[in-house]
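Hi F.,

I've been meaning to write this up properly since the lab meeting, where we talked about keeping a consistent format for the predictions we share between groups. The idea is simple: the sequence comes first, exactly as it goes in, then the structure tokens exactly as they come out, then a line or two of notes. No screenshots and no reformatting. I'm using this chain as the first example so we have something concrete to point to.
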Amino acid sequence: MTLQKTGDLVNRTNNRLSTGLRVASAVDDAVNYFQGKSLSDRAADLTSRKEGIDQGISSLKSAIGGLEAVEKLLVQMKGVLLSAKSSTAAERVDLASQFNTLATQLTALSNDASFQGLNLINATGANLKVQFSEKTSAILDVGGTDNRFSAMVGFTAAGATVIATAVTGLTSGWSAISASVSLFDNIIEKMDSAVTTVRSNGKTLGTNVALLQTRLDFTKAYVNTLKEGADKLTLADLNEEGANLVSLQTRQQLGIQALSFAGQQDQGILRLFG
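Output, unedited:
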């Protein structure tokens, strides 16, 4: 019986060394097995959430990049307006065309700044939802903003002629505006307001990126902690198991030798009576 038990222990130790697991099933240790499984399952769930957080960061960075580009275009457009203030009627025709082109491109850029189908800078109805865990309250909602030119500046369309019409009632463009600079100052004031709005939207998104990054770092560390805890409950100590195997094999060999000696002694006794 002792030799058979030693053989079973040798087989168990070999299995631990080959699999690296001290607890491979509930049969080995029900308490540790289910505790380890619970920790591993939790780690797996949070890993999937971690991927969602990472994608959320990318989505916000795409939107921030779009807003930075929008701001640059607005600054260029303001420069065109400043030039138009002191330009001749003929020069204003060309400047109005430049302004109109920039406004059109600004709106197109806002429409192009999407990530995986979500655009946070061309519609107020857009929404980014990032869930951190299975808890319903562990969610971040980021609403979209409309940074297209017409929405920011307050005109119904983004054309230079339309702007002139809105300010003066004329339809022939900037060349028909009088020499007074006050009309251009009115538009420049709206442009300044638009730049402020875009910067504010960018700051809001940047704050959310920082929040998501903090949550991502926490989730990564937490997942590693959960895995480490599960490993402590189920993984085998290979050094210890290796030493156990050597000890068990030695014990097994000694047991076999003892049986051999006992058999030889029995044969000697039988020869004496033979």
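Notes:
The mean pLDDT is 76.
The beta strands are 114-115, 118-119, 127-131, 139-143.

If this format works for you, I'll send the rest the same way.

G.
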